[in-house]
Amino acid sequence: MCKTVEVHEIKIDEWAKLVNESPVSSWFQTQEAYSFFDSISFLKAFAIGVESDSNLKGVIVGYIQQDGNFAKRYFSRRAIVNGGPLLAQDIKEEELSMLLTVLKNKLKSEAIYIEFRNYCDYSQWRAAFEKNGFSYQPHYDVHIDTPNLESVNGGLNRNRKRNIKKALENGLTIDDNPGEKELSIFYQQLQKLYQDKVKTPLYPYEFFQKLRNLPSSRFFVAKEEKGRVIGGMMCIALEGKVLYAWFACGEDDDYKNLSPSVMVNYASICHAAENAFHTFDFMGAGKPDDGGYGVRDFKLKFGGKLLELGRYDYICNPALYSLGKTVISLLKKMK
Question: How many domains does the chain fold into?
């Protein structure tokens, strides 16, 4: 017998077992991730599962997000599923279809669209997604194999090796256990990056404070010779499997000889290699048609594989989705 279950009905040990055994597990589909998202005041977390004969076959964890003033918040309501769904290797198409159908019904009045951001290969389930109205959108990611430091250093391109050598010679250090003061400085630097270059809203400080306190979080900051924080990186860990690069920034223009953005990324990758993670995941590298995508080029210089893992999108309300794109575009121009 196949049935869907609400989050409070999912057995914690069964959930953990599925995370351990699934070929597409990620931290973002764990019970810890759900609890974290549920603790954030400006997000609305959701989680559902599907069982067959009392065996957990799939879980979807995500959150509803909205930005800006009243008008923009209304038209920017979207459900984000980072990492893609957590699925058993032997999940049947009808079980996945039931899970997706319940998800759509659950969110249709709360979100304008649903987006699965895949960090694993879901190609074997693409037909099931498309039969349920989800469209595939090409999107890149970069994964680095991290069996050991020798492998990591061997994958660096010549320019990255030069950046690292010069930064160390000029006194840059990495703090892998920074405190609240360093977190505050890092957040201010991240805010500037999002305002000047990324051009998308950044989560409020609450998100980073609570993320920092999770057992699975990893936080690194780069400091210049006098101890000033000039960059940082926040990662999240699926222990023994994958370290995810979630947020990073660096004052590279002001400290060209120290390459803080390079160094916090390198420190994070080395941490993965030294602590039994088999993969370092950069969590996205743009769309294939993004010509000259600088962030992708930056990530590829650390070595690793360029993968098209894609995204699955479902439009819950086509009329509001179309109108919302127009409204948000106008609001951006007015701003």
Answer: 2
Residue 223, pLDDT above cutoff 60: yes
Q: Helix crossing, 31-39 with 205-212: angle to 10°? A: 140
One domain, residues 207 and 316: no
The letter for the amino acid at 65 is: Q
List the domain range (segments joined by +) for residue 122: 2-139+310-334
- Three-class secondary structure of residue 222 per DSSP: strand
Measured distance CA(305)–CA(227) in Å, rounded: 35
d(CA 207, CA 179): 16
CB count within 10 Å of CB 318 equals 10
Measured in whole angstroms, the distance separating CA 256 from the mean position of its chain's CA atoms is 28
**What pLDDT does residue 234 have?**
98
Residues 8 and 26 in one domain: yes
Q: Which residues contact 67 (CB under 8 A, 6 or more apart)?
A: 73, 76, 201
Q: How many degrees, rounded to 5, is the angle at CA 267 between CA 262 and CA 273? A: 125
Same domain, 187 and 93: no
Distance of alpha carbon 89 from alpha carbon 196, whole angstroms: 43
For the whole model, what pTM was predicted? Answer: 0.94
pLDDT, mean of residues 16-24: 98
The predicted-structure confidence for 50-79, as pLDDT tens digits, reads as follows: 999 989 999 999 999 987 666 667 767 899
Q: How far apart are CA 93 and CA 95, in angstroms?
A: 5
Measure the CA angle with vertex 310, ends 307 and 314; round to 5°: 175
Would you call 215 helix, strand, or coil by DSSP? coil
Nearest to 98 by CA among 133, 131, 52, 50: 50
Q: Give the pLDDT confidence of 270-290 residue by residue, as tens digits.
A: 999 999 999 999 999 999 988
